Every structure is written in C-alpha cells, then in structure tokens.
User: Fold Chaperone protein HtpG from Ancylomarina longa.
Amino acid sequence: MSTGKIGVTSHDLFPIIKKFLYSDHDIFLREIVSNAVDASQKLKTLASTGEYKGELGDLSVRVSIDSEAKTLTISDRGIGMTQEEIEKYINQIAFSGAEEFLDKYKDQANAIIGHFGLGFYSSFMVSDKVDIVTLSHKEGAEAVKWSCEGNPEYTLEKVEKADRGTDIVMHISEDEKDFLEQSRIQELLNKYCKFLPIEITFGKKTEWKDGKQEETDEDNIINDTNPAWTKKPLDLKEEDYSSFYRQLYPAGEDPLFHIHLNVDYPFNLTGILYFPKIKNSVEIQKNKIQLYCNQVFVTDSVEGIVPEFLTLLHGVIDSPDIPLNVSRSYLQSDGNVKKISNHITKKVADSLNDIFKKDRKDFEEKWDDLRLFVQYGILTEEKFYDRAKKFMLVKNTDAKYFTLEEYEAIVKENQTDKDKNIINLYATDADAQFTYIEAAKAKGYDVLIMDSQLDNHLINHLEQKTPTTKYVRVDSDVVDKLIQKEELKESKLSEEQKTDLIPVFNAQLPSTGVNYMVTFESLGENTQPLMITQAEFMRRMKDMAAMNA
Ligand code: ADP
Ligand code: MG
Assistant:
C-alpha cells in the first residue's frame, strides 16, 4: 500500500468542495454516473479505432445501495484506470482527463461529458469516504484500489478485480443518509440520468402479482439511451414527437406544434421545443424547458440563460457547449450560452413565420393559444419583434385575423385623424362595449379585439414603434378623433335640451377618476341618440396605473 497527498497546490480543497462547489448536493450522482458513462463511451471509441481489441460486452452502468455497509456504488465496464492514471486524473484535482482525451480523439470521440475535472470530488459532499476500485482495459493491467476520507491524504493498493472497469464506492455520511434510500436515488436518477446514452440499471424491475409488488429477474433500466431529440428529424413521425412530449410531461396537455433544433455550426445544439397552449397567464406557465449537456440533465430553471419569453416553451435543449458547470451566474455570463439563446430566438421566430406562410388557416386557428407567447416575445426581445411583426396577428370583432400590414391597408382610408395618423379602434370586452362597437361599425369603422393580459403593454409598444398608428379604445373620445367620410347627423335635440340632459347623465355615471363626455351627434338611423365616452389617454394612464399597483 502507498499513501500520498492530493492536489496540485498545498491548500486543502476539501472544505471548499464540501461546502461551496455545488449549491445542490444532489448533483454528485449526476457527476459520478456521467463519469461512468464517459468511461464506457471512451472504450467504445477505442474499440471503433481498433485500439481496444477485446470484447465490449454489456456496457451498462449499475447503481446499487448496500444499506448495511451504508454505501452507494456506481459500477461501469468502461476503460478503467491504471495506477498511473489514478495518480494523474484523480490525485491532481482540477486536471481533467476528459479534456486531454478529447484533444487526442477530437474527430471520433463520442460525446464526453466532463469539462472541469472537479466532478469526481463532488462525491465528498455526501460521503465520509470514497473508494475507487478499478481495472484498466489495457492488457496486463493490475487492479487498484484508491481510498480517501475527505482529507488530502489517500491510500492506493493493489487488489483483485475480475472484470474490467470501475466501481466508485461512496460511504454515505450520517447527515446525508437519505441517499441510501431506494426512492431518493430513483428520483435523482430520473431527474439527471433519464436520457443518458449508456444504459443505467438500478435494482430489478417489479411487477404487480396478486395485489403485491414483486421483484422480477429483469434489470430495472432507468433511462432511454436514444431520446427523440438525438434522432434525425426525417426519421421521426408526428406521433414520435407527441410520445416524446408525454415522456417529458406525462400530465401535460398536447402542445400546438414543435420545432426540432439541429445545429452543428458555429456551435452544437440539438433539441425539440414545443409550443404549449398558453391560456390566460404567462406567469404560471414558465420553466418547463430542460437543459442538457450531452444527454446529461443540467437544469430546468432556464431563466437568465435563455430570453425570458422562451421559458414559456416546453421541451429539451442539448448542447455540449453549455458547460455542465458549478454556478448559475457562470452559465448566464458564458459567451456560448448567449450565442445559443440568440440562435434559439431566431429559430423560433423563423419557424413561426414558416408555419404562418405555409398554412395560414392553421396558424390562425392556433393564434388564440399562441398570442401570449408571441406578444411576450415582442415586448421583451427586440430581435424577436423584428421578425415577429411580420406574422403577428390582430383579430377584429368579426373574428377575422390580419397582420399589422394587412390591417393598416384596411383602415387607412377610413380611420385617420386630422394629423393623418391611422387610428386603430379596439375593444377590450366585446360584451360590455357592444353598443360602442356597433356604433363604430355603423360609421364604417373596423374594431379590433384586444383582450389579452398583455394587450395594454403591446399597444404602447406598437405605438412607440410606429408613431403614426394610434390605438383608441372604442368607448373613448372616438368621434372627435376621426375624420368622417359622411357628415354627422345633427341631433334632433335643441341646445337647451342638451344642456339640461348632461347633468342627468353625469349624475348616473360611476366616478372612476376619469371624466366622461356626453355627445349627441350620431350617424345613420340605427345608431344611438347619444354617446358617453372617456378620453383614451386619460383612461389608459389609469389602467396602466391599476395594472402596476
Ligand atoms: P471530468 O469528468 O470533468 O474529467 P472528473 O473529476 O469527473 O472530471 O473526473 C476526473 C477524471 O477521472 C476523468 O476525466 C477520468 O479520467 C477519471 N475517471 C473518473 N471516473 C472514472 C471512471 N468511472 N472510469 C474511468 N475513469 C474515470
Ligand atoms: Mg466528470
């Protein structure tokens, strides 16, 4: 047996590893299992280049709990390590073997997960002691056992090991003992390892027999090694996309449609994004996208990483260029991550534009479920607005849909004010504003329905972008603002009668802080004898104040 001291510096790194490396202790399992997967992938690579001539056999990674010994063990049949390799890759913290391997086998290497050479040590967040028992795939190699109790000293000795590969034996510490529970480990494997590219087994499959759950002889495989996003879009049918959606969100309602991302330049990115039906509030629907790095789950809280409106989408994004990293702020400031989010924004806009162009009817049918997403994107991402203004739709009170450009062509003849601004009339509640809508239509105007949670903000935004188009609610001081094609009909009431009537109406009107106006002109025979309106500007100020309160 030999002993030694860990590290490239004289500092003891363990206290830092234990407390600060990962805010989330759970991830040790992800790190150890992904190392086992890496080791198996590396062996596959060596076999494909002819450098490894032996049998590959079953490469699955086994996770097991020994409740008596209080250990959690991850075993693989990958490349294993020689004593020299342990000294190099394990004893020198922060020296990542993965990086060196990737450099050497750049072109044929299967995706390697590790980047930083700190992953293995995360096992010390939950263990009093960790053993590595390993036999290298190399001919004539001898098995070795490395052992360390969470301080800079370690021991290294020769042992017997029949099979190629590595066992990582974690002696779980007393205050982390829930990691010795079947259900806890199952839950973590489901979270982090569900789509790893090498089979992971944990215990045996169970089945219900005579009202009891019984173990079978069959291994319980916890992952799908070949998830939909890793396949070519051409090889997938519509139902493959919907069954993958159900794999991700068993209880979710069917999405509207999906985008399959598949980029290999200037960075690597795959994934499938789904557009959910967004009913009434954007607030409650965020955070369903899962971020992966080479099929290893990284996070499902992507705010700050992708633009906020994209957090409304569902699905999976996978990129080896997203660092499997220790801190969230690092992810947010990472240049690759920024490029990736810009790309996704562009891709999402382009896909919507494609659907819009290819099948306008389908797009219109989905619009009501889609509009909050598009509006949110327009309001928060300049780059998205630039693309989305071409396919963003508005709906009028006859349930007809228009792009902004189409709509302008319809109203510009009839609905302008004295300064030649175009006036888009809108209603926020078709029932409550019914009489105003009818009156406006009788005058030959068109009225939009703008009743979404975000329409108020959208109107302000659009007016800023195109100052020559104004939005005026249909019960506002409409008549004053528009140039009439026909002359207004003189009211049959005398001036004196009008003056007498105004206080009668005013006394009945609710006091909302915004003054009402009573006017008596009307158009045509079937319209109202008088109109009660509020100033658009005043009303909108008040509505915005109420929304922000
Ligand atoms: P990284 O995975 O980022 O390289 P880790 O700290 O997770 O960093 O692992 C350090 C190194 O230890 C790996 O690069 C690899 O060379 C070696 N290693 C860890 N686990 C295994 C394993 N199960 N089989 C073979 N080598 C391993
Ligand atoms: Mg690793």
In short: Residues 108-117 have pLDDT under 50 and may be disordered.
